[in-house]
Design a protein that fits this description.
This protein has 496 residues and is an alpha+beta fold. The protein has helices spanning 15-28, 57-64, 68-75, 111-120, 133-139, 164-177, 292-302, 346-359, 368-394, 402-409, 414-426, 439-448, 465-485, 489-495; strands spanning 8-12, 35-40, 51-52, 78-80, 82-86, 94-98, 159-162, 181-184, 187-192, 198-203, 208-210, 213-216, 233-235, 244-250, 260-265, 268-274, 279-285, 312-315, 319-321, 325-326, 329-331, 337-338. It has 14 helices and 22 strands. It has a 7-stranded mixed beta sheet with strand order 6-5-15-16-17-14-18.
């Protein structure tokens, strides 16, 4: 009870990461005891070009007490039921990775194991996506927030498409209303104590900002985590070869689908994110295969609406800092690491980094045990997400370009190889220690990209086949009926 608490928190960088940090800390910390200062420059742009999120965003927004309809209005947001993948397994293939679960598990056996048994018996049970309410509703452009706690309505999970810059602006207003002090300026350098801890940052105009705890949200530059305390970077380019992106907005050409699209291309993939005021388009690609000019040209020729902005190019290296917390500097967001946006995990990693920091919030002694737990848990999460993203590239049969041929042939981390082999052998999926992606997510991508198990769990044989078939077909019918009863996505948005 005599420990010296942290009194001054300094956040370097605004954007989505910085203002998420400021909002959460201003909500969780005693404003009478801890001051929060955020430094950002109006002259330095942010990476945010439009963001797709995953359902964990609800936890963060609920923590802040945000109203969903108000948030969507402020961020030009739409709802998201999953991601539609085109041309990933083979040219012409398409599948959806939906939120929510497939079918109804029995106590003794998973639903997908019963489905596999019926498929093996040549029964006409259709695609696995027909047994997920979110998937069916997405393809019908239907959506509603379910109020039911039981039944099919309760299985719908959803996230948002939001304008990242508007989201940051929204959280800035929230944070400043809770006492966060914003300084407009550019950091010149950090001043460090003899032990290497950061004592203050000095702005280019000479102002000094002192702090006890510094949170680096300065993006890829990592001004403090890299420049001041000198933490190196773990490079995953050999597994995730895309290292460039170009983004280009356009007017919405038609309806607003409640899902993101990820369209595989010959040197990477293209995204489409539907917002109310525009359609976000981008191309994530490998610079070894495609130069920036060719990538922009390819993106322009695939955009369906009227282009409404200028292209923005982003360079990145997939991976993470060797440590995300060193001395009294904690890296959140791009300063700590980056995994390409294929499964919309960027905001999630910011969110979990903040949650982890709150759980392990230090005093001025900065006990190394807190730092070590933060780093161990953070790096494990990066590795688990990395494996899931690699899965999309590895499980392809495409051979129409050198890029895809290399992806097919590349060795993968042992942790991913084990998952692939377990599923190939008998459709089994095992997750480890609070892994973010659910069994349903792994199931969607592995089946969607053509990894068919050689057999199924023999426990599924304990159920009479006719009984199983009748129940599954009835369920499929009920799911489609329920999805068709939902309002049109745009109509539901208009009602908000």
């Amino acid at each position: 009870m005599t420990r010296d608490p942290v009194r001054r928190v300094v956040i370097l960088g605004g954007g989505t990461s910085g203002w998420m940090c400021a909002a959460a800390l201003s909500r969780m910390l005693d404003r009478e005891q801890v001051s929060i200062t955020l430094i950002e420059s109006s002259d330095i742009g942010t990476i945010g070009v439009g963001e797709a999120t995953i359902p964990t965003i609800h936890t963060f927004n609920s923590l802040l007490g945000l109203d969903e309809a108000d948030l969507l209005r402020a961020t030009q947001g739409t709802f998201k039921l999953g991601i539609k993948f085109d041309d990933w397994g083979r040219l012409g293939d398409s599948y959806i990775h939906p939120f929510g679960s497939y079918g109804i598990d029995r106590p003794e056996v998973k639903f997908h194991q019963m489905w596999l048994r019926l498929k093996a018996a040549a029964k006409k049970v259709g695609d696995i996506g027909e047994y997920n309410v979110s998937a069916v509703a997405a393809m019908l452009n239907r959506f509603a927030v379910g109020s039911a706690t039981r039944g099919l309505g309760s299985t719908i999970r959803y996230a948002y498409h939001i304008d990242a810059q508007l989201y940051a602006r929204y959280l800035r207003s929230y944070s400043e209303g809770r006492g966060v002090h914003r300084i407009d300026g550019i950091v010149s350098h950090a001043e460090q104590r003899e032990d290497g801890f950061v004592a203050s940052v000095v702005l280019k105009d000479g102002r000094r900002v002192e702090g006890d705890l510094f949170i680096d949200c300065s993006g890829f530059r990592g001004v403090l985590i890299n420049g001041a305390v000198g933490v190196g970077y773990e490079d995953w380019t050999h597994w995730l070869p895309c290292d460039r992106a170009v983004a280009l907005p356009c007017a919405n050409p038609g309806s607003l689908p409640p899902y993101t699209r990820a369209i595989a291309d010959h040197a990477g993939w293209r995204w489409r994110i539907p917002l109310r005021h525009r359609l976000g388009n981008g191309y994530v690609y490998s610079s070894a295969e495609l130069d920036d000019e060719a990538a922009e040209r390819r993106l322009r020729e695939t955009i369906e609406g009227e282009i409404t902005g200028e292209p923005r190019f982003i360079r990145f290296v997939a991976g993470h800092r060797h440590k995300l917390w060193e001395r009294n500097v904690v890296a959140i967001g791009l300063a700590g690491g980056f995994i390409e946006p294929l499964e919309s995990t960027s905001i999630h990693l910011v969110q979990t980094g903040i949650a982890r920091l709150i759980l392990l919030f230090p005093d001025k002694s900065f006990n190394p045990a807190l730092r070590d737990e933060f780093n161990k848990s953070s790096i494990l999460e990066y590795e688990q997400i990395r494996d899931f993203i690699i899965l999309h590239y590895k499980l392809t049969e495409r051979d129409d370009s050198p890029f895809w041929r290399r992806c097919r042939a590349m060795p993968v981390p042992d942790s991913l190889g084990q998952k692939i082999e377990l599923f190939r052998d008998g459709g089994r999926i095992f997750r480890f220690k609070d892994e973010m992606f659910t069994e349903s997510s792994w199931l969607a991508v592995m089946l969607g990209q053509g990894l068919v198990p050689e057999t199924y769990d023999p426990v599924a044989n304990s159920i009479p086949q006719d009984q199983m078939l009748h129940a599954i077909l009835a369920l499929r019918q009920e799911i489609r009926k329920h999805a068709q009863s939902l309002p049109d996505h745009e109509q539901y948005l208009a009602s908000l």
